[in-house]
Hints:
Blueprint: E1 15-18, E2 24-29, E3 49-51, E4 57-58, E5 67-74, E6 81-84, H1 118-127, H2 197-209, E7 217-220, H3 226-236, E8 243-246, H4 259-272, E9 287-290, E10 293-296, E11 300-302, E12 310-312, E13 319-322, E14 329-330, E15 352-359, E16 362-369, E17 384-389, H5 406-418, E18 422-427, H6 438-449, E19 454-457, E20 473-474, H7 480-494, H8 508-527
Parallel strand pairs: 7-8, 8-9, 17-18, 18-19, 19-20
Antiparallel strand pairs: 1-6, 2-5, 3-4, 3-5, 9-10, 10-13, 11-12, 13-14, 15-16
Helix pairs in contact: 2-3, 3-7, 7-8
Amino acid sequence: MLTDVDGNPSRYDSLRPQKLAVPVHVYVEQFSAHPLEADAAHLYAPPDGYVDSQGNFSATETATANRPVYRVELRPEDGYYPLPYMARQRDGSAWETDGVSSFAAREMSRQPFMPDGSRTFEEVDRLGVDPRGRGSAIHDIADVEFFRVAPSGGYMNGVPAGESSDHADGTIAVEVSGRDFFPYRPPHLSKSPPRTSLARIANATQKILRDGHYDGAIWTQGSPRIEETIYWLNLVLDVTVPVCGNASQRYHGETSNDGPRNLIDSVHYISSGCWADAEGRNRVGAVLVQDQRVFAAREVVKVDARPGGFAASGGHGGIVGAAAEGRSRLCFTPNAKHTYQSELNISRLPASVCGIAQRDGTIGRIEIPIKTPSGDLRDDAIPYVSIVKDYSYSEDDFGIHPENEVDIVAILRKCLTSHPLAGFVLEGLSPYGKPASASKLAALERAVYCGLPIVCVGRGNTEGFARHSRSFIGGSNLTATKARMLLMLCIMKFGMLPPATDAEKPSEAERRATEQHLDRYRKTFDTH
């Protein structure tokens, strides 16, 4: 048994939602659901009968059968029921953690995350209550279908057709962690979706929403990553329905878990229609609904690992309204282009753009396909964009030595040989995103005239507008991670910059050509 701090057996065994295999009859003690039920006994129907100390039931009260009870049939279809956890490890020991031991390999560990949202939604409806004490807070007002786009749990043995709980078309083949699903617990086995997953996310979500079958969508993801994904969806989707991001700062089932309330609030937000313009189109774009607040996708950032740990970045609002039962409303609407208005959405991206590649010491332009013939984004077309952080007092001496910026030099070399679509985001000083290091500035300017666009933003949660300069794109008040998302799509829209013959000494004509190309980027950064 688990023990308390004094070494004594723990008082309670925690209850886990589980499903019955067959119907059973149980006897529930009357007035045991709340300590003050008995005070209102005159409002209650009589019990179904009585039990004695041995558990024997009698329809009438006797001298020995004197404990009033309800006789209840529990059916499998009415569960999941909170019960002491019944499963054991194969050696007979209890399950208390994810793996059979600390740092157990994947094949010796359980998966703590669901393969899709259906079980989580059902537990929220069955085990939670709304402010009036009623359950079914989601399904009383919405029909929900579930899709696995980049899930946190996977079918490592596959699933036959019709046996998964999501909207699957057929058999689900054997799935591999880090390729088909991306868990982030236990920590030593966590996997992050690769850059190419952004194409999967865009294509799948666009396909799901494009035919108008759904009134809206909820994108669920872990709280450390959702701020980037929801902004990606805000830019790339060509849809007019609302898209809500939801995360949970505490795991499902953990004490004071915030996830269920966020899901319920998203359903109320979508059903309220407060997001609709006069033509019924979503005027807000993708949002994050968290802690009863509605954040614009462009501005929301996670600042701490606790409920309430999301904030609006950029210093100019970002919280556009509130979401709650019967009280969802908007106070402001974002001015930046989004979804069906976005110049970068999947419908408006070109079939191909010009990339760059270095061959035999010469940088040339090459055509890079962006979409498949059916119009989906290609996963190998997602640009490689790195974030470089600048800081004061970084120079070795009073000279300018771009060759000492070994991180930029190495990344640039990698881009010129392996990534025909690529760029940098420089997180410089606040305000304006100015570079602090002259050596770093020189190294990045060389990258520009090799053909790579560079965006400058201020450090951290900046309120100052990062300005456009001769060689760089100003990232406005975006954070570095949000600027990276926007730059990726700009590269997929406009292609790479025209490389100079000599990146160290570009001619005036080459500078003008670069400036003209950068203007397209700058206009987009000013409006998205």
